[in-house]
């Protein structure tokens, strides 16, 4: 049995995995993040798990958290049993690759922020840790980003930016179709098309509160416009709020199995 935990800006979602996934708990992040380690230790004991995977809305470089713009508070993760800590978009991409049974995939999560994860030949690509930060690609203009940069994709199409630009929630803008007319949407499609040319994945999977709800046909229409016909990956959406926690489970499982 493996424990998978998704530590997001608002909630901490917990699943256990033993051939199938089971959602066992959700905690508010704000109240629990400072004693995250004891929360996890308690769950380890309760479910008698042999490994833990943690997906974090954070930048992790050489095993250290270097940035965590959407989570307030400090914590450490120090467990006696095998555990893996990875970026939440990486967990999303890893789970998507298993779910859709592809070896080469780009996962793009669009919610408050924008993240992405790369799976190549069945493995996650980390670089020095920060590989796949598509949300912080420069896409033009001088909108300020949460990371301190300007003109980044997230500053043009992240949930916080859409709210700032249009005074509306992105979900409403998806419902009435106005999101597809924004310059931010076009910029996002250009960024994804460029990433596709770099990586040549079999599929691009969109997730997150905004990404998972986008219309696949609209995405295809816009992304394919910027791609040569030879580069036309499948465009998919995944509406599973537990995808990150599930991916964290699978990463932990893989790491345990590889050590056996
Ligand atoms: Zn940025």
Descriptive notes:
With 260 residues, the protein is α/β, with parallel strands linked by helices. It is built from ten helices and twelve strands. The chain folds into two domains: 2-91 and 241-259, ATPase, nucleotide binding domain (Nucleotidyltransferase, domain 5, 2-Layer Sandwich); 101-237, Nucleotidyltransferase, domain 5, CATH 3.30.420. The chain has a five-stranded mixed β-sheet with strand order 3-2-1-4-7. Zinc ion binds at residues 136, 145, 147, 149, 152, 154.
List keywords for this structure.
260 residues, alpha/beta, Nucleotidyltransferase, domain 5, 5-stranded mixed β-sheet, 12 strands, globular, binds zinc ion
Whole-number tally of structural domains: 2
Overall mean confidence score, pLDDT: 95
What is the CATH first-level class name of the largest domain? Alpha Beta
Listed once per kind, the bound small molecules are: zinc ion
Strand order of the largest sheet: 3-2-1-4-7
Q: How many helix segments?
A: 10
Tell me, briefly, the overall form: globular
Assigned CATH architecture of the largest domain:
2-Layer Sandwich
Largest sheet: 5 strands, mixed
Return the structural class.
alpha/beta
Give the radius of gyration: 18 Å
What is the terminal-to-terminal distance?
Answer: 15 Å
């Amino acid at each position: 049995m493996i424990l998978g935990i998704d530590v997001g800006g608002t909630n901490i979602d917990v699943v256990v995995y033993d051939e199938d996934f089971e959602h066992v708990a959700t905690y508010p992040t704000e109240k629990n993040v400072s004693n995250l380690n004891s929360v996890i230790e308690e769950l380890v004991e309760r479910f008698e798990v042999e490994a833990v995977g943690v997906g974090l809305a954070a930048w992790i470089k050489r095993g250290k958290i270097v940035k965590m713009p959407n989570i307030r508070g400090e914590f450490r993760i120090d467990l006696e049993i095998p555990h893996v800590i990875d970026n939440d978009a990486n967990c999303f991409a890893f789970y998507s690759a298993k779910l859709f049974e592809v070896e080469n995939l780009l996962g793009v999560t669009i919610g408050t922020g924008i993240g992405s994860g790369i799976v190549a030949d069945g493995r996650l690509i980390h670089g020095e840790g920060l590989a796949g930060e598509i949300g912080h690609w420069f896409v033009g203009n001088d909108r300020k980003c949460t990371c301190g940069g300007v003109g980044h994709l997230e500053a043009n199409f992240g949930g916080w930016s859409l709210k700032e630009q249009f005074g509306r929630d992105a979900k409403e803008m998806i419902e009435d179709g106005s999101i597809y007319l924004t310059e931010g949407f076009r910029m996002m499609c250009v960024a994804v098309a460029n990433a596709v040319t770099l990586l040549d994945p079999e599929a691009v999977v969109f997730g997150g509160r905004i990404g998972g709800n986008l219309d696949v046909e609209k995405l295809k229409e816009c992304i394919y416009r910027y791609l040569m016909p030879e580069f036309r990956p499948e465009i998919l959406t995944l509406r599973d709020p537990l995808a990150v926690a599930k991916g964290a489970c699978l990463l932990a499982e893989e790491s345990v199995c590889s050590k056996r």
